[in-house]
Amino acid sequence: MEVATGKTDNESRVKGRIGNDLAEHTIVVKHSDGLYRHWRCQKPGTWNMGFDIITWPGSLCYTGDMGDYLFQRTPDMVSFMRGSCMSYSYAAEKCVAHDGRLKEFREELFEVALLDRLKESEDNGGTFRVMRGERRVDESVADAIDDIRRAYSEYNTQNDAMKAMYESGLWDGADLPSCEDYTFHFLWCLHAIKWFTQQLSEQAE
Q1: Among candidate residues 68, 152, 154, 175, the one with its CA nearest the CA of residue 106
Q2: Which of 52, 53, 172, 180 is 20 to 30 A from residue 156's alpha carbon, by CA?
Q3: Confidence (pTM)
Q4: How far apart are CA 156 and CA 65, in angstroms?
């Protein structure tokens, strides 16, 4: 499973197609005045997967067919993103605004979290202690996980999954797994920014 190797399915999908997606893209300078800049990146004749990069001191806005994201950190954000956009979590920390497509609930990560918790319980005989009323009792981790899966299957929504995990008592609030990962769109946009910065560097040589 790709999750165990540190690579997500979305990341593999993006890496498998980004070169082809951008193969015919060109970059057109729409505006250039110091750190106030605007580039249009697209395949001539179509806006499919096209995007604009707009910068002003301290900010870089990526906006286009695949999403809208605003990054803020240093005065020259093109230079910053050139070195930072492939660190997904770091880039996400600097994303101060987006269109809602930054992270998503992933069912496979939900399942990994359940299996990891079950494996952890083996040292305790497959049980865990939980408060029931005013008493602490030992209950089966496997049974609790079955209850979580059943609750999730009824409605198949992230809220139901997280609510069932929290109410199970298998995790406390601070340790509850998020079961979220970066969306295909966000990762695609980061790789498109990387492509863009590489193109600028090559043009400057």
Answers
A1: 152
A2: 172
A3: 0.82
A4: 29
